[in-house]
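Internal ticket #5521
Category: modeling
Description: The requester needs a full-assembly model to guide mutagenesis choices. All entity lines are attached below as received. Residue total reported by intake: 233.
Assigned to: D.W.
Attached entities:
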Amino acid sequence: GAGVSQSPRYKVAKRGQDVALRCDPISGHVSLFWYQQALGQGPEFLTYFQNEAQLDKSGLPSDRFFAERPEGSVSTLKIQRTQQEDSAVYLCASSLHRSGTGVYNEQFFGPGTRLTVL
Amino acid sequence: GENVEQHPSTLSVQEGDSAVIKCTYSDSASNYFPWYKQELGKRPQLIIDIRSNVGEKKDQRIAVTLNKTAKHFSLHITETQPEDSAVYFCAASSPRRSNDYKLSFGAGTTVTVRA
């Protein structure tokens, strides 16, 4: 079946512009994660959804970052008033995990959106 | 929060030799440790994972070991091949709440297999 998809794959924004990054998780996956990957670094956690509920947003670097998953499937990460330090690859991952099972499920990653802020 | 350190940052091996990557973690509550392989410009892909109730796991040429007391885990690749060249990331998950399985990643190891 189809894997996790993200769009756009590349985004160039002028400093101060708002951007919206989309993630389509694998159908039926309950959990959805956003990570930020700076050049030459490992992914860093931004936020986590279980269905439509945003259960953890502790990794969002500022209030300029906002994520939503209104119907429990597609998710959008929005960055307002972009800054140069926002330049990175934004990765989305989904997993089948259901609450209360205590069982870990593999996180499947999308190809990422490379954001460049000029 | 969880802090994962990974060594070495780069590793060059002769084809057919073994490669070992080591990671340490800080949170004793961590109980899930996946390893991801990321080729240039591609998405991270899970290659193997281990849970804290297991000390070692093997899958063909890949093995992972876990030492909970010392809080470190390692990836071993035997009989390396050119297609093993990639960046490898270790990660740890320490859910504080029952539904949060976010991963904390190491900085990555760039493995180059010389033909």
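Resolution: model delivered.
Comment from assignee: Chain B touches chain A at residues 4, 6, 32, 34, 36, 42-46, 49, 51, 89, 91, 93, 97-108 (CB under 8 Å).
Ticket closed.
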